[in-house]
Amino acid sequence: MGLAYQMIEWDERVCRLLAERGFWVIRYDNRDVGLSTKMDHLGVPDLVAALAGNPVPPGCAR
Q1: Is the dihedral of CA 39, 42, 43, 44 positive or negative?
Q2: d(CA 16, CA 55)
Q3: How far is CA 48 from its chain centroid?
Q4: What is the pLDDT of residue 59?
Q5: pLDDT at 48
Q6: Interior CA angle at 47 toward 41 and 51, to 5°?
Q7: How far is CA 59 from CA 36, 37, 43, 44, 46, in A?
């Protein structure tokens, strides 16, 4: 699971079953979603501009 997906979306029972079968279960929590620190004061990033090669740092005006 990738961009903007929370670690808490993984069903706890599935994780436990995998671990009981000897697998390592790693649930990654992408920055600023799920249980991580919120950075709402920085606003929403412009993904279209970033993909076009014109990234603007969060919190900076264009």
Answers
A1: negative
A2: 40
A3: 18
A4: 63
A5: 84
A6: 145
A7: 18, 16, 6, 9, 11
Give dist(CA 62, CA 57) in Å, integer: 9
For 31, the token pair is: 């920055």
Rounded-to-integer distance, Cα 25 and Cα 22, Å: 9
pTM for the whole thing? 0.44
Tell me the C-alpha distance between 28 and 55, whole Å.
Answer: 24
Cβ distance 17 to 23 under 8 Å?
A: no
Dihedral angle, C-alpha 32, 36, 39, 44, nearest 10 °:
10
Residue from 23, 27, 24, 22 nearest 10 by CA = 27
